[in-house]
Each structure stands twice: as C-alpha cells, then as structure tokens.
C-alpha cells in the first residue's frame, strides 16, 4: 500500500467518510497529502513519453484509443444536424472499414442529449453531457442541479461537471465537496440507475501540482466516477505530467478504499503519437485494469481523424488523401 493510502483517514476500514465531517477536517486531510515532487513528476512523464510502440502493438493501441474517445461538440452554433452527423461518425468512424471500433461516447450540451440519444439508440455508444454551467462553473447550486437534471432526464448516460475553481482556490473545499455530492445525487434516476459523473478540474487554472492532487482526492471522496483534466476551453488543457499525477491519485485511492475511479485527459490531444504516450502512462502506472473505455477516456475530436489516418497507413502502407476523413 502506498504512503498516501496507508495514511488516509479511515483507510483501515476502506472508507474516507470522516474526512469531510467539517471544513477543518477536510482541509487537514487535503493539506496533509504529500507534496508533489515537480521535477520527479515531469521527469517521469517525459521518460514515459519516449517509450515506443511497435507495429503490431501499435495497431492494437490505435483501436483501443479510438474506443476510448469521447467525441465532442460543444459550440454555441451546434445544431441537431451537426450532432446527428457526429453520432454517425462515432458509430462508424471509417464508413469504408467496419472493423474500426466505435467511440466510447458522444459529448454534447444538455439540450442536444435527446437528439444524440435517438441517433445512438441500441449502439452501446454512451451519451455524455456537460453540465453545471460549463465551462466556467459560475452559477448557483440550484442552477447547476437543474442543468444536471435536464441532461439526465433527457437520457444522458454520463455527466461532465466542472468544479468552482474560485471556491477551490479560495480554500472553500467543503463547498466544492458538497456541490459534487449534490450533483452526484442529481445523476440518479427514478428507476434506481444513475448517470456516471465525471468531475472536471480545469487543471490549467489550478496553479500547482499540489492543487491537482488535492482536487483529485476531493472529487473521489465526494463520489466522482471519473476525474477529468479540462474543459478544452482554456489556454492550458491536458498535459502529460498532470495526467500522470491524476493516474497516481486514482491508484492510491483504490489502494485506500477499494474503489476504482476513471481518468479523462481532455483538450490538446490531437495526434496518434500523443495518444500512445498517454496509453503508455496508463499501462505503466495502473496496469491493464485501467486500459479500457470504462476507466480511461480521451476528451478529443480532432484526435480521431489522425488515428484513422495512422490506422490506414498501417494497413495499406500509405496515407490517404485529405478527404479520407470527415472534417468535424
């Protein structure tokens, strides 16, 4: 068991419920986590990024990466037609090759959930919806809960919420914790099922690696099913060191509680080479347990086109023309 897991309050009993008894206990726990060795973290991430994947393994890794993509459209100009087109691409990323796997999910705004749900009916591809005043998170709790409830009622399988970074950076940890818990409750349906909850930190705004570690543990204690780096709407999104730090957090959290939590880097991952680096990090840090769309996702859209181009290059020995893949 890691040092973090061994020292976690309630670790012996497999739970961490006592750490959020008050603002003081939660702060004591979060600030009691070991500080992040910045040099060591960035050096390990860089080293893992140099690992090469050979041809046979690369073909497997490309298909795995495709199956992990949350294909996303989150623009003010989104239309029902655009969402249906994106769903069609998610179902059959390469219409000329039905051996290409489906993506993991289509991610849209709450008002487009019903459209995506209908387009994906019976396919197994999940419908994810951003909520809680995405991407800023600047809204009161009733608005955030209404945003979530609308998406869940429309059929969303997954909810991607954003934390209030202002509250977190101001040290109002219990407020962030209670908001995550409330949104988690809003993900529940009358039939007893529940949409999975991904909690977005916007790591580019959290300022320090220590804050990323604290946010990771805070979200997991509050009930997150996934922890996610970014919205993709700011200058700095997913990075390899930040993702590695979050992978280490979910590893230690499972050691402390027995609960497995997924990780989703989002924003700025555009090439097959990038995706391979992230898969190597997952394999080296967490092992096979997390090498599945159930536990690891890419928040990306342009990445899919590059994966398709590289996949065809492996199978035919040449790159296709610029019109081989659709422009989303």
UniProtKB/TrEMBL annotation:
Signal peptide residues on this chain, from the entry's feature table: none
Catalyzed chemical reaction(s): 2-deoxy-D-ribose 5-phosphate = D-glyceraldehyde 3-phosphate + acetaldehyde
GO biological process: carbohydrate catabolic process; deoxyribonucleotide catabolic process
Swiss-Prot/TrEMBL keywords: Lyase, Schiff base
GO MF annotation list: deoxyribose-phosphate aldolase activity
Gene3D superfamilies the UniProt entry points to: Aldolase class I
CDD domains in the record: DeoC
Enzyme Commission number(s): 4.1.2.4
Membrane-crossing segments per the record: none
GO terms under cellular component: cytoplasm
A Pfam family assignment: DeoC
Recorded metabolic or biological pathway in which this protein acts: Carbohydrate degradation; 2-deoxy-D-ribose 1-phosphate degradation; D-glyceraldehyde 3-phosphate and acetaldehyde from 2-deoxy-alpha-D-ribose 1-phosphate: step 2/2
Broadest EC class assigned to this enzyme: lyase
PANTHER family: DEOXYRIBOSE-PHOSPHATE ALDOLASE
Family named by the database record: Belongs to the DeoC/FbaB aldolase family. DeoC type 2 subfamily.
Protein name: Deoxyribose-phosphate aldolase
């Amino acid at each position: 068991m890691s040092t973090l897991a061994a020292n976690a309050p309630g670790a012996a009993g497999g739970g961490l419920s006592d750490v959020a008894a008050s603002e003081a206990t939660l702060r004591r726990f979060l600030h009691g986590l070991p500080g992040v060795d910045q040099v060591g973290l960035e050096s390990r991430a860089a080293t893992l990024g140099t690992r090469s994947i050979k041809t046979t393994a690369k073909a497997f890794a490309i298909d795995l990466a495709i199956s992990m993509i949350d294909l996303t459209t989150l623009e003010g100009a989104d239309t029902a037609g655009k969402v249906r087109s994106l769903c069609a691409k998610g179902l059959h990323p390469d219409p000329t090759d039905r051996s290409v796997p489906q993506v993991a999910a289509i991610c849209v705004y709450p008002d487009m959930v019903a459209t995506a749900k209908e387009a994906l009916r019976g396919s197994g591809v999940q419908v994810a919806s951003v909520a809680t005043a995405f991407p800023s998170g600047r809204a009161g709790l009733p608005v955030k809960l209404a945003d979530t409830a609308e998406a869940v009622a429309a059929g969303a399988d997954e909810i991607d919420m954003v934390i209030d970074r202002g509250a977190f950076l101001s040290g109002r940890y219990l407020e962030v914790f209670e908001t995550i818990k409330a949104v988690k409750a809003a993900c529940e349906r009358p039939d007893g099922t529940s949409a999975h909850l991904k909690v977005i930190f916007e790591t580019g705004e959290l300022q320090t690696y220590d804050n990323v570690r604290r946010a990771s543990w805070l979200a997991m204690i509050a009930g997150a099913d996934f922890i996610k780096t970014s919205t993709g709407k700011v200058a700095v999104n997913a990075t390899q060191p930040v993702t590695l730090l979050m992978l280490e957090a979910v590893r230690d959290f499972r050691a402390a509680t027995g609960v497995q939590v997924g990780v989703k880097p989002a924003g700025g991952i555009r090439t097959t080479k990038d995706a391979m680096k992230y898969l190597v990090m997952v394999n080296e840090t967490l092992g096979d347990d997390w090498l599945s769309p159930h536990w690891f996702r890419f928040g990306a859209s342009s990445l899919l086109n590059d994966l398709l181009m590289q996949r065809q290059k492996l199978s035919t020995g040449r790159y296709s023309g610029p019109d081989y893949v659709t422009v989303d």
